[in-house]
């Protein structure tokens, strides 16, 4: 059995490193010269250098954020097209807000400096969140550091 020890490497840095195949190839080639190590050893050597790994981590974080944003929007889109979301008398609308809705409302209030809404049902919470743009985590694209 082959066991690869990636040490304490950051998964976001690994994602960023391999996001564009043309980027890691020259680095791997340079690291391979005279190394004689395995591919895993070369990746560990490259990403163990904080100056080299920082931009890859930033790129990986952006890619991960975009992936989560796309999943979130797909879920919201699918639900908004469902019969349950369009039925103003659906049973789910009358239940108390979920803990996730309460959390998202508090995050939206904080992020957008809004007044707290008066919501007592899931339906009211859903409509309020939809009106203010949904999950504040995905309201705006993340800014990349220069």
Count all strands and give the number. 0
Approximate strand percentage: under 5%
Largest sheet: none
Secondary structural class:
mainly alpha
* SSE string: HHHHHHHH
| Average pLDDT reading | 84
Detailed description of the structure:
By secondary structure, this protein is mostly helical. The protein is 61% helix and 0% strand. The chain has eight helices and no strands. It is elongated. The two termini are 43 Å apart.
Describe the SSE topology.
Elements: H1 11-17, H2 24-32, H3 39-47, H4 50-80, H5 83-86, H6 91-94, H7 99-112, H8 122-132
Record keyword descriptors for this entry:
single chain, 146 residues, mainly alpha, elongated, disordered C terminus
Summarize the structure.
With 146 residues, the chain is mainly α.
